[in-house]
Amino acid sequence: MKKTLTLFAILSFLFVNAQSDEGTIYLKDSTEIKGLIKIKTFGGVKYKANESSDIIEYENSQLNGYDIKENGIITKYRFKEVQGVSRSMKIEKLGKINLYSIFVSNSGSAMGIGLPTSSGNVYFLEKNNVVIRTGAKFKYGKLYLIEDCPILIDKIKTKEFKKREVIEIIEYYNKKCI
Description:
Blueprint: H1 2-17, E1 21-27, E2 32-39, E3 45-48, E4 56-58, E5 63-70, E6 73-82, E7 85-93, E8 98-110, E9 113-127, E10 130-135, H2 150-157, H3 166-176
């Protein structure tokens, strides 16, 4: 009985995840395509103009990014190259320093079943068209990126801004610093 319930739970999860969302795809040739899109597990997207149209698949190498509308909220993703690898990243903040994130989930193993043991956002900063991984925190080794804003550096060192408040730090920089 437990095996049947487990199988049913897994299959129902797969069917729930099979839905497409409204969105826009941005191709490398500057074409924008609006319709229904689904993010493929191992990269790329599936596109349909509407529910009854055929599926067209686009690989990461063809894409600049995509926007997805879920529950009335538009989330924007762009492909950025970090250390020679192009990755889809969620846009968190745009400005003098752009902030992107990737949600990661590290799995462990318990009784033969892979269970999430930790998850969260890994942040990437883009300044002067260079993308740098900062991780889950704004590390002191990345202070050189904001060296033109000594007030913000002081706020981080005096812990007015915690290192985990990456979004707030970049938001402050983009609004208050030259």
